[in-house]
Write a structure and sequence with these properties.
- 10% of the residues lie in helices and 30% in strands.
- With 342 residues, it is mainly beta.
- The strands form 5 sheets. It has an 8-stranded antiparallel sheet, with no helix packed on it.
Length: 342
């Protein structure tokens, strides 16, 4: 009996030592809690998966853990902090969008003009388009150079700086908050937070990539990239030697948009929206320039805009299920009972 007691004590001691090693180890899984009051996951605590045990990653290319409070199931998931241009909520290239309905479409807009991407009661997201029109073309080639956010009485903008040639060692991002420039030191995980703590901008690489988080409203993953020589050759853009057309790659995730949401991208989250883009077409282009054109990057004066500084989202009208981070790259089903379409 004495031997059994000694063995039991030894086993307990080894288990305690093992637990302490795991706690002090780098791969110990975080436990995260959903604090979104409108979610059925409110105050549920979840353990991060082994594949992404932490919400912070030393390697910018690693996936991180996050709580998707608007998921049909309450569990911690893995995600990339950089935009996925082949997933819902994406706006990349010249501009190629993937709507909340999973359908790919192109919206060309016009060079040096502004258009509303999302207009809801409590959120406005606009884009400035840049581009060029080579001789013989009937429309501009365009890219998104800047985005502007309006929420409450606050404004925020993010833009790609003009560059004659691309230098990956130079930070091409410029930020402003309520009309004043803000500086976010270079360095992975360097961040800035608004005085009200409702807006956070975090670098997801040393330079040229950030994650913008508007508390309980939206997340925007951003990359700055140039038009490459290969893209220019394939599409015959005829890019001049004094402008590499630095532009933004974007992926949006929304929390509880209203059913009335508008905008080039926003309308695709309406529950009864019928996308005019036909799946299977090589380049399905949709219109709407007249409906979504705005006078400046930080205005909400388009024909179909519904944003108001005093706008309050009616929680009974909130679209709790968000499709912005579904991974449609591994098959038709996302694993949540949703079928991905193209």
């Amino acid at each position: 009996m004495k031997t059994f007691g000694n063995n039991s004590s030894l086993i307990l001691l080894l288990l305690l030592i093992s637990a302490l090693v795991q706690i002090n180890g780098k791969n110990v899984a975080e436990r995260k809690t959903c604090f979104s009051r409108r979610s059925h996951c409110f105050l549920r605590t979840m353990t991060c998966p082994a594949q992404c045990p932490s919400s912070k990653a030393a390697d910018p290319k690693s996936k991180v853990c996050y709580i998707n409070c608007d998921s049909p199931i309450c569990k911690a998931e893995c995600k990339n902090k950089k935009p996925n241009c082949n997933a819902p909520g994406a706006a990349c290239l010249d501009p190629r969008f993937i709507g909340g309905d999973g359908i790919v479409f192109y919206f060309h807009g016009k060079s040096n003009e502004h258009f509303s991407l999302v207009s809801d009661l409590n959120l406005q997201i606009n884009a400035r388009f840049i581009g060029l029109r080579p001789a013989g073309r009937i429309r501009d080639y365009t890219w998104i150079q800047a985005i502007g956010l309006l929420f409450g009485t606050q404004t925020f903008s993010l833009e790609a700086k003009h560059a004659a040639t691309w230098d990956e060692e130079f930070d091409h991002l410029k930020f402003s908050y309520n009309g004043k420039n803000i500086v976010i030191p270079e360095g992975h995980l360097s961040s800035w937070k608004s005085p009200e703590s409702d807006l956070t901008v975090e670098r997801t690489s040393v330079k040229n990539s950030v994650l913008v988080t508007l508390l309980e409203i939206a997340e925007i993953s951003v990359n700055v990239v140039p038009v490459t020589t290969e893209d220019d050759r394939i599409h015959n853009y005829q890019i001049p030697s004094d402008d590499c057309f630095a532009h933004l790659e974007l992926q949006f995730k929304f929390y509880g948009l209203s059913s009335k949401v508008e905008g080039v991208l926003g309308r695709t989250y309406q529950p009864d929206f019928v996308n005019p883009a036909k799946p299977g077409m090589a380049m399905p282009v949709v219109g709407g320039e007249d409906k979504y054109r705005i006078s400046s990057l930080l205005s909400a004066d388009c024909y179909s805009c519904i944003f108001s500084p005093a706008g309050v989202l009616d929680q009974t009208d909130s679209l709790l299920m968000d499709f912005g981070t579904l991974d449609c790259t591994s098959g038709a089903s996302s694993g949540s009972g949703i079928i991905c379409r193209r």
